[in-house]
């Protein structure tokens, strides 16, 4: 989801310019809409009836493109996660207009004022969405979770499911959720800790109005149910990755560890934010103690999230372990097919394997093509994210020209010095000859250019 929320529409004009700059689509071509409307009327005929399972969904309150529904039951000392994922492939056929358009987009693009969906609403927020207004076709994964958090995919089948409730992070209570929900999340978290996983989920930023009429960037409180819900997807994706790896096929999400330079930048950022990080403590050990409810620690969590060498997609290849450093294991994306193109093909491959059938050629071929398509979608989403954050920072600082701020240089490269403000979640560049990482500065805001989403500081004095 987006890193910045804008409930008061303070960014409206700038967001329109971002949409124009990055050619964010406003809708779908008529032939795609017509094909989607016809597909949405397709009755599920290859699905077993699993409507007796007490499924619920858990998402942001405003979400209507619901990829996932779940039910959890006890099986001896294990837990069984019944995880229903929207059966997008039932509505989208290879080579049809909806499929062709999805290959052009790759993923849903999110901005604070709305999204550009991967699929037309009649599918993504209607026929395929796991809304609680009647049975929906889904792919039902059953994942066995052992007491130590190890996961195994027990089955995968096309099924009709019926969500009992559309729960929201903001309002869901313990009574609304399965009694095993918290236990399952705990098991997955403990397994992550044993693996040395460095996954971090910072809270979202939002633009809020200050008492003086200006704006500030703040962090929205993250609900415990969000983290626990993320554990369900993690469990399913890890179990699916194991199956794909064992059968020498699939598409994996891969990411290298942050390099030494990135870790040093994070240490400098921690220093700028006044957060103690002992030299003897690793990044993995350090991040587990960060509190997202503390604005400065939340800002550092966001920096850690952005510090990796970049996640990408890779097809299975003999002799190569598809490793994702943040989860410290092979990992696949399968649980958000309404929002990511790649997930639809990972799901199809897993269905075939679990049914004892060969993976269709069209899916194997897609695994070779998808890294480029998904890489482009990731890059575009990242550029839009950065532009939105730049805009939010400019709006936040507008009217504060002439003020001075404390900052710390986090790194220096060919383009000059990058600094982190000590009291605001702002990272920007400054002309500071002779500065080295860790240099403390006093800087004055000398310009804000809302049209170009730019802010400009000058060094006042070295406070170090």
Automatic annotation (TrEMBL):
Which GO biological process entries does UniProt record here?
A: mRNA catabolic process
Q: Describe the location of the RNB domain by residue ranges.
A: 47-356
A GO MF term: RNA binding
Q: Do you know which Pfam families this protein is assigned to?
A: RNase_II_C_S1 (PF18614), RNB (PF00773)
Q: Which InterPro entries match?
A: NA-bd_OB-fold (IPR012340), RNase_II/R (IPR001900), RNase_II_C_S1 (IPR040596), RNR_Ribonuclease (IPR050180)
In Swiss-Prot or TrEMBL terms, this protein is called: Exoribonuclease R
Q: Which organism is it from?
A: Sphingomonas kyeonggiensis
